[in-house]
Amino acid sequence: MLRSLFITFLLNLLIRPSFSRLLTDPSQLLKEGYDFVIVGAGNAGNVIANRLASVPAFTVLVIEAGVKLFVSDAGIVSTQIPFIAPNILLNTSLTWDYVTVPQEGLNSRILTYQRGKLLGGSSSINFLIFTRGSRDDFDRWANVTGDSIWEWDAMFPFALKARFTTPVDNHNTSQEIVPNFHNTKGPLLTTVNGFPSSIDGKLVATTQADSEEFPFNPDTNSGNPIGMSWIQSTSGGGSRSSSATAYLHPILSHPNLDVLVETQVTRLINIAEKGGKPDLREVEFAKNATSHRFTIRAKNEVILSAGAVNTPQLLLLSGVGPKSELAKFKIPLVVDSPGVGQNLQDHPLLAQQFLVNSNETLDDISRNATLAADVEEQWITSKTGPFVDVAGNLFSWVRVGSDIVNKSNDPSAGPTSAHVELFPNEFVSFSEAVPATGSFISVVNGLVSPASRGSITLNSSDPFDFPVIDPGFLKNPLDGRILIESVKLAQKMINTSPWDGFVIQPFGALANATTDAEILEFVRNTVTSFWHPTGTAKMGEQNDPMAVVDSKLFLKGVQGVRVIDTSIFPFIPAAHLQAPTYAVAERGASLIQETWAKA
């Protein structure tokens, strides 16, 4: 019976009618152009589309390169289940299947570097964690841009536009969030856990056993995330809430909005009169590398929301970037902007595993296909059970000691910004499957205030050729020292008294890593990306030559283009990036509306 319900569910999704404004053929576009052309239907682009299309006088076009899969992302079941979110990275039909150059700091390993390639972008494939970052993160942005609109207090109203919802098990959340830091209205759904984990009680007890290192924080999204908190995620009613489901799907019937999918923007074209300031409001795009190139003009603005990898690539292809870089590929120079593609920042991630004495872990879901199918059917029929949550329910954000970072070398934004995220959960490994026997937990370590910097550069002048991605992991030796401390902090956490008799021993390569040198080698052989690229078209003051956009997000040196995505972050926040990106997109939409309300 349940199996037949599952089949019926999928068939209903497959045969659902396409939305009237969701287009797959460029010939269907308005010939006279649009007021606004948004490049990318991802985390930020869909927010911009929603807010602009809410003004009936505006015409809006969104161009998304995402593949045709049930016409829209609405029918992709795997993107809707919170627990299995990491598995989506294996589905190359939903991702830009990028890889990095060999990472010198990681023993020359090449890493996968997937980004979402569907409606919702990476918000449709990420791990759902919703963390705004710290007060200091945003105040640092205000300092480097010289504009108070980016301060925490000024940004908080935009961060509040997400809606907190009751978890699916309807438990009392008074000890898990502080209501003053949340809204009960808004398109994006957020919540806390709806299914208990076997280690929840131990983690809460840890905050009492070692309150100095792991203090309890009643709400990670207060502006000061330091301490142990209950995880908030972008889900509601047991399903993922993405920028597509929250912002785009509800407006697809708007007569002033077109969304063109399966189509890649290839460059912006300068339409300025000879000798005038470059005007890049003509957008070129194509279905694939061999198909016809189309163009469309934005009467008001082009908004680049293609992300920290694709946005700098597109700017370079359009002649905006370092003069020397463009000359290598014989791309005509439009604006010499040396910061394009530079300043790439990302969060290194590693997972350490531990063998535990328990029969309550969820390892068997990964081992037993029948059990996994039963749990999935429970999610489909009732939106309950383990699949309604991400893999853990609490995490800890920690600052390392002054023996590692001090005032002169601290890469964090300030005392409310963590250096390290510790995320205890079920067995997690990005290199091996769960072992055939035994019970395990993992602690995922994230270096959330990295000192290293990397770059995005062109591989060729072909827009369908992937760019060269170098996150520069552990290029700065300080990052290695912080990650060594992170591994020790994770071990310190599970060696507190609440874990007595539960943890048996470290598992895998970590079991033999005892000295700092051995731990660093474990780190170099284990680190992967948290898939949080930022900073490659950073905002800054007008006199900063490395700033690509100004504080109002206009592309410097040209007319008619703004950039609104993670590429504009001058520093990566100590946070998972979707919450700050939503806030930036809401702020950016407000700036656009303010500009054109006066026109």
Automatic annotation (TrEMBL):
The catalytic activity of this protein is classed by the Enzyme Commission as 1.1.99.29
Swiss-Prot/TrEMBL cofactor(s): FAD
Q: At the top level of its lineage, which domain of life is listed?
A: Eukaryota
Q: Which reaction does it catalyse?
A: pyranose + acceptor = pyranos-2,3-diulose + reduced acceptor; a pyranoside + acceptor = a pyranosid-3,4-diulose + reduced acceptor; pyranose + acceptor = pyranos-2-ulose + reduced acceptor; pyranose + acceptor = pyranos-3-ulose + reduced acceptor
What are the residue boundaries of the Glucose-methanol-choline oxidoreductase N-terminal domain, all occurrences included? 116-139, 307-321
Q: Which UniProt keywords apply?
A: FAD, Flavoprotein, Secreted, Signal
- Pfam families per UniProt: GMC_oxred_C, GMC_oxred_N
Q: Where does FAD bind?
A: 265, 531-532
Report the Gene3D superfamilies cross-referenced here.
Answer: FAD/NAD(P)-binding domain (3.50.50.60), Glucose Oxidase, domain 3 (3.30.560.10)
Q: Tell me which SUPFAM superfamilies the record gives.
A: FAD-linked reductases, C-terminal domain, FAD/NAD(P)-binding domain
Where are the coiled-coil regions? Answer: none
How would you summarize the oligomeric state and partners of this protein? Answer: Monomer.
Which PANTHER family does the record associate with it? CHOLINE DEHYDROGENASE, MITOCHONDRIAL (PTHR11552:SF147), GLUCOSE-METHANOL-CHOLINE GMC OXIDOREDUCTASE (PTHR11552)
Please identify the protein, giving its name as recorded: pyranose dehydrogenase (acceptor)
